[in-house]
Recover the amino acids of this structure.
């Protein structure tokens, strides 16, 4: 009877070889090796870290120097991060990616609004068109006469209020009142003192200052 293939591949015994020697086959060595899983201790993995009691965020490096994130925005972001159970490091990483993009987008929208107001001012039927440069000079005269440093900063700020048509319209009216020598209407013939705020207000808004 033909022997099994596994038996024919084994090394035949030689005379004087003990039974113990014959057991030193690959098959025997494999079965005698201890299981590594039994000898090695299983590494325990810690549970994922969740949201902290309170987030402590740093200002993203991509934001302009001195810029601070609005507290209400930061509170809303913290609440959303807590709902997602984000740990401190992941919440900070997301803030670093999102906030600079939001800031840049806000600046783009401000610039678009300034350009829109400037276009409307140039095309304004009252003071725009060919009369724009002259009327801007009149408006600047009013600003020089009555404007404070705080008002100038506001008009020149990134909000672009210095381009708003209604702001320019008001300044032009004030400048025109300063440029005229005399009142009109019932007060004709009376000189206007450019330093008299009451007189200027009466000329600009006669109905509101009359008794």
């Amino acid at each position: 009877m033909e022997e099994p293939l596994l038996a024919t591949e084994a090394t035949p015994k030689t005379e004087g070889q003990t039974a113990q020697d014959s057991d030193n086959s690959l098959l025997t060595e494999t079965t005698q090796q201890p299981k590594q899983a039994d000898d090695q201790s299983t590494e325990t993995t810690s549970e994922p870290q969740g949201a902290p009691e309170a987030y402590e965020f740093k200002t993203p490096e991509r934001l302009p120097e001195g810029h601070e994130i609005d507290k209400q925005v930061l509170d809303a972001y913290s609440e959303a991060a807590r709902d997602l159970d984000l740990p401190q490091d992941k919440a900070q990483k997301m803030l670093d990616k999102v906030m600079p993009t939001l800031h840049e987008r806000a600046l783009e929208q401000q610039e678009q609004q300034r350009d829109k107001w400037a276009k409307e001012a140039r095309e304004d039927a009252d003071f725009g068109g060919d009369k724009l440069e002259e009327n801007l000079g009149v408006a600047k005269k009013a600003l020089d006469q009555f404007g404070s440093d705080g008002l100038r900063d506001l008009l020149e700020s990134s909000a672009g209020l210095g381009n708003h048509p209604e702001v320019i319209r008001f300044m032009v009216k004030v400048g025109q009142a300063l440029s005229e020598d005399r009142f009109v209407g019932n007060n004709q013939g009376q000189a206007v003192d450019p330093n008299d705020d009451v007189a200027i207000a009466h000329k600009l808004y006669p109905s509101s200052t009359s008794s």
About this structure: Residues 78 and 92 are 10 Å apart (CA to CA). Residues 114-209 form one domain. The two ends are 135 Å apart (CA to CA).
